[in-house]
Amino acid sequence: MTLENRLRRRRAAGRKLLMPYVTGGITTTWLDQLRAFVEAGADAVEVGLPFSDPTLDGATIQEATHRALACGATTRGILDDLAGAATEVPLVASTYYNLVLHAGSQRFCAALRDAGVSGLIVPDLPLGEADELAGSAASAGIDLVLLAAPTTPPPRLAQIAERSRGFVYAVSVMGTTGERTTVADSAGALVDRLRRTTDRPVMVGFGISTPEHAAHAARSADGVVVGAALMRRVLDGASPYDVGSYLARMRRAVDQDLPPGGGRWTRA
Amino acid sequence: MGDPGPTGRFGRYGGGYVPESLVETCRRVEEAFRQAWSDPGFRDSLTRLLTVHVGRPTPLTPALRLSAELGVHLMLKREDLTHTGSHKINNVLGQALLARRMGRSHLIAETGAGQHGVATATAAALLGLRATVFMGERDIERQALNVFRMQLLGADVVPVGTGSRTLSDATGEAMRYWVGRTDEAHYCAGSVIGPHPYPWMVRTFQRVIGDEARGQCARELANAVPDYVVACVGGGSNAAGTFAGFVDTSARLVGVEAAGGAGAALGRVGVLHGCRSRFLQDDAGQIVEAHSIAAGLDYPGVGPEHAHLRDLGRARYETVSDDEAAAAVVRLARTEGIVPALESAHALAWVVRAAGAGELPPGATVLLTLSGRGDKDVSTLKDGPTPGDPA
Ligand SMILES: Cc1ncc(COP(=O)(O)O)c(C=O)c1O
């Protein structure tokens, strides 16, 4: 089953979606981290394939990336680890376009598929440049997720929603990844605009740092992506168990905020 | 070297590989630039600034004693004589005027050697804008004088401590900072790199070098063009501006890179900082750090148009070592009384080598763009071994 069908199914069952992020190879026990996320109620896990120049990432993910590379992490090694992990939730790889281009998009997508990955996020590949990879991803059965930003104009937003697969990634703020003190108003506005053009799942990411943020953002969106807040803890030495517990708190916050019947909220 | 059109392609290179958050901003920069460039009022303002503030046109200086030694006819296009001391000011004034026209109050720049930072700080002061300049910590050490100049001009210099702590990391950091401030800030790229429209826009602003030189060479050479047109290549802006004046002639175009930063000569196809071009990479596709004695050439790639000219065979790209470049500084200083920037010295070092090896036929005419002056490099040269120094 495709990533999108799995997410749609969960949404239809009244569940808000939670997608934690882990930088592949950030520690030698990174697969334990991934498993802890699954146990804590993740609906999918985003796995970062480290690239030397992560230009859209803030300080935390940059540090995580550099640490993983310094520990010898490679795309090949991470995919081999994933192939042996046999997780029951969908895995979504994320990386920068240079790594795709370097391998060749067909080979890259085939390698993802063989490792059990079903989605791909490439933050420096906007709609106008995505044709080639979109084709290769489709033939390998990988859902290529496109990103939408607060400044994306309406006609383009509709095209992004139409061409995206898996879900639409709503970037909450004009900025990089990283923890923030509040969820920007631009997040809700963007989700509302996307809603008007698509029924594809919409996930909000960038800056979702606390259980309260997650609950807040998940009111309008179908789910949230949480990265830097988790990686900050890993970098500070938290165990997979500790980070899993933090995600479990987000899970509860998101679930408790669900209105009766699990229907969709429109924000008051 | 024409208009790459709305997709910003030079052959298979170029494009706009930016986060969605920057797509609309880049589109607006392109639209504003197209309008401005076809507006005679804008062109006049820029020409006037280049005349009264920068000191254009810059002279073409025959290098008489060195020419006699090398057995070629070498002419120097003197960008070192511009206000602020390098070609970077040509592009920056264009972008600063554009930024003001777009209602932006803040310029963001990255700098390696500091020359682009100084130019940005200067243009910001001149036009009443704010300037924030990102610079690798290693470059801050090497180019302390330029850091002080930027601060004196009122710019904020932000140290970048990630990665190789040089130009490439400063570029990444400047782009991150920009994503959060696209309403008030204009990203003022320092070379022919980055997403469309930057490589094209920067080359268009730098074209003034090649256009002036074409006319000056014609006077010097009784209406002929030089046999060789040579310029150093970091990102490639002075070379692109120079080449643009000669691409439609029979002149042979030679771009000279630092041996440790040879994106065009040794790089592989990749995507970095918003464009598809050639970059130094390892076998896993990770970007490799560049190393050069010249901070302005310490970049692991080249602009997309250079990658295209290389594939076409219209320009060739050569590399020069740190030692050869340092020796070339001394050579020009002692034959012509001109201390060139270490970056420009790379181009000169290739001419010296090629003349010595008989690759440049005796009597060949050579135009060389002296992209900047060497004041900023004196401490680097003083602390390192100075080739040819009697002491
Ligand atoms: C004097 C000088 N020349 C050349 C360069 C390299 O830049 P480009 O290749 O864009 O001309 C620099 C960059 O800092 C410079 O300061």
Write a structural description.
Chain A is α/β, with parallel strands linked by helices and 268 residues long. In chain A, 46% of the residues lie in helices and 14% in strands. Chain B contains 15 helices and 14 strands. In chain B, strands 3-4-14-9-10-13 form a 6-stranded mixed beta sheet, with helices on both faces. Chain B is globular. Chain B is an alpha/beta fold and 391 residues long. In chain B, helix 5 packs parallel to helix 7. The chains are: A alpha/beta (268), B alpha/beta (391). Chain A binds chain B through residues 51-58, 62, 66, 69, 74-76, 96-99, 101-103, 123-129, 146-153, 156, 160, 171, 173-176, and chain B through 7, 15-21, 23-25, 162-163, 168, 172, 175-176, 179-180, 182, 268-274, 276, 279, 281, 284-287.
Subunit arrangement of the protein: heterodimer
SS summary, helix count of chain B:
15
What is the molecular shape of chain A?
Answer: globular
Please bin the fraction of helical residues of chain A.
Answer: 40-55%
The ordered H/E elements of chain B are EEHHEHEHEHEHHEHEHEHEHEEHEHHEH
Strand tally of chain B is: 14
Helix content of chain B: 40-55%
Main β-sheet description of chain B: 6 strands, mixed
Largest sheet of chain A, described in full? 8 strands, parallel, barrel
Mean pLDDT across residues of chain A: 94
Radius of gyration of chain A over all CA atoms, rounded:
17 Å
Computed over alpha carbons, the radius of gyration of chain B is 19 Å
Portion of residues in beta strands of chain B equals: 15-25%
- Please list the strands of the largest sheet of chain A in the order they lie side by side: 1-2-3-4-5-6-7-8
How many helices of chain A does DSSP assign?
12
Task: State the low-pLDDT regions of chain A, or none.
Answer: 261-268
Structural class of chain A: alpha/beta
Indicate the low-confidence ranges of chain B by residue numbers.
none
Distance between the termini of chain B: 47 Å
Most extensive interface between two protein chains, with residue counts: A-B, 43 and 34 residues
Q: What portion of residues of chain A belong to β-strands?
A: 5-15%
